[in-house]
């Protein structure tokens, strides 16, 4: 940053981001490949020109020009990159330094926050760091998105429970997860009806930490249910009929000891994360609102240590599920305040577990100005039966327009990409000679033979230089499909990006551990 003023930075951003970079593909006729073994799209290939007002996802760098390649409109991209492949420096950070509209980002090492949040704040974004491992964290209460209206709250609660109590790979116990979800629904109804109870002694916060307190009542959750229903009735502040019904349906299953143990065990297990002090503090209220992402410029980072990804996968799943759901309810043409796009930048996509809305959202919610850049190691991760399976993975990825592929060591994946690249027809000149048997001299014949050769052999993909990548770009009404061998982006080598990185990030809210007892009430 030495020698560069804030005014110069702002000037560069105005030039760089407020332009509308629409992609226009050249209409020139393709030349046949006869000499060079590795020719993908034509050498003139794609022309990227600047227009006005759109947000673009950086997908690479032109193979010969000093130009970043971007994707515009309602397009989505995914990146397959093995550990150490450069996904952070080549995809995540460049987009966080360049994308002008709202972003929700998975930040496994807090590196993205440290490098990019200062710049995004300087550009007018409200920046939030949700860091459930630390008392230094902006807060996100998932239950704030449950509708308080009695006509809609049960539906919201059931949708919430279906995410939190998804059996994931434990399919044989799916029935017990369903019952645990129903039990959780009853507890949430109770909290909603106690949030502003006229009788102060029954008041409680509506948080997942509080739900764990009720589910883990020392007297037994079934006994607590019978007691609290009666006490509320006696105090003249009775619970609603639907709340009593849900709670008592759960409590009545205590008559089946084995089933009760399974249900309560799963109920508490999925809530136990929220009993941890840092998580309870981070989810005790909300400092940001997903519903404002398309109204204001907001950047939200989900920060968690690399070694804790699995532990927090349920919370990450819930976080991104709600971010997507809350922004795919109203179309921009029906609400003039929805003037921004929102990019879901989902690194470590496979670690989050199956995000059920992702099976349909990319294909069905394109007009909502929600865009996706998802990153995973390889497609086999997603094809695993514990995640999306073969059909589910195909359904998700078919909705994406651009596939970015880094070099790899996986032979099976390399073979798959080699076949996807296809073949080229090459020509080879051959000369044959005949020897004279009589008085005449011999003759020499020349011919040209055509043969097919893979555009890139699997071994060549595995040996591709570190600073190169492959792009597969789907066709549109006006453009044909493209297969591109482009350069990777390294944000610290791009001057317009490097000057933006490593600014001092915004201050993060701090919760004093001494305040923790006030965040929940005892059953």
Automatic annotation (TrEMBL):
CDD domains: TrwB_TraG_TraD_VirD4 (cd01127). Keywords: Cell membrane, Membrane, Plasmid, Transmembrane, Transmembrane helix. InterPro entries: P-loop_NTPase, T4SS-coupling_protein, TraG/VirD4. The keyword Transport does not apply. The keyword Membrane applies. One of its GO terms (cellular component) is plasma membrane. Pfam families: T4SS-DNA_transf. Belongs to the VirD4/TraG family. This is Type IV secretory system conjugative DNA transfer family protein. It comes from Klebsiella pneumoniae.
């Amino acid at each position: 940053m030495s020698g560069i003023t804030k005014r110069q930075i702002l000037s560069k951003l105005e030039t760089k981001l407020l332009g509308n970079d629409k992609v226009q593909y050249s209409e020139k006729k393709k030349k046949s490949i006869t000499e060079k073994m590795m020719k993908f799209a034509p050498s003139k290939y794609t022309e990227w020109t600047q227009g006005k007002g759109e947000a673009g996802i950086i997908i690479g760098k032109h193979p010969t020009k000093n130009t970043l390649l971007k994707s515009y409109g309602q397009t989505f991209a995914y990146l397959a990159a093995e550990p150490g492949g450069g996904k952070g420096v080549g995809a995540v950070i460049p987009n966080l330094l360049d994308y002008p509209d709202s972003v929700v980002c998975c930040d496994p090492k807090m590196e993205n926050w440290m490098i990019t949040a200062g710049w995004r704040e300087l550009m007018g974004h409200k920046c939030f760091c949700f860091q459930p491992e630390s008392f230094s964290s902006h807060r996100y209460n998932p239950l704030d998105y449950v509708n308080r209206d009695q006509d809609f709250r049960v539906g919201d609660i059931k949708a919430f429970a279906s995410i939190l109590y998804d059996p994931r790979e434990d399919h044989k116990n799916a029935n017990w997860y369903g019952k645990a979800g129903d039990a959780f629904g009853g507890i949430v109804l109770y909290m909603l009806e106690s949030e502003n109870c006229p009788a102060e002694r029954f008041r409680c916060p509506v948080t997942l930490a509080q739900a764990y307190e009720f589910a883990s009542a020392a007297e037994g959750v079934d006994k607590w249910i019978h007691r609290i229903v009666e006490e509320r009735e006696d105090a003249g502040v009775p619970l609603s009929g639907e709340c009593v019904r849900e709670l008592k349906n759960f409590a009545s299953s205590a008559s089946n000891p084995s089933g009760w143990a399974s249900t309560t065990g799963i109920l508490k297990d999925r809530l136990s994360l929220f009993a941890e002090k840092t998580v309870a503090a981070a989810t005790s209220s909300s400092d940001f609102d997903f519903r404002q992402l398309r109204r204001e410029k907001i950047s939200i980072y989900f920060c968690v240590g690399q070694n804790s990804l699995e532990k927090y996968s349920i919370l990450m799943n819930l976080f991104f599920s709600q971010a997507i759901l809350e922004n795919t309810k109203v179309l921009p043409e029906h609400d003039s305040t929805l003037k921004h796009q929102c990019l879901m930048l989902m690194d470590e996509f496979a670690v989050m577990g199956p995000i059920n809305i992702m099976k349909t959202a990319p294909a069905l919610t394109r007009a909502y100005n929600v865009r996706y850049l998802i990153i995973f190691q390889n497609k086999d991760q997603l094809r695993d039966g514990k995640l999306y399976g073969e059909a589910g993975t195909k359904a998700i990825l078919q909705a994406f327009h651009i596939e970015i592929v880094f070099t790899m060591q996986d032979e099976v994946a390399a073979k798959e990409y080699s076949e996807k690249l296809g073949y080229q027809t090459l020509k080879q000149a051959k000369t044959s000679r005949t020897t004279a048997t009589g008085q005449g001299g011999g003759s020499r014949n020349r011919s040209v033979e055509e043969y097919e050769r893979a555009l890139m052999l699997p071994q060549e993909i595995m040996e591709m230089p570190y600073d190169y990548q492959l792009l597969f770009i789907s066709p549109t009404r006006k453009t044909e499909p493209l297969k591109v061998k482009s350069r990777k982006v390294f944000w610290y080598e791009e001057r317009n990006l490097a000057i933006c990185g490593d600014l001092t990030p915004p201050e993060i809210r701090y919760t004093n551990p001494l305040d923790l007892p006030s965040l929940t009430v005892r059953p």
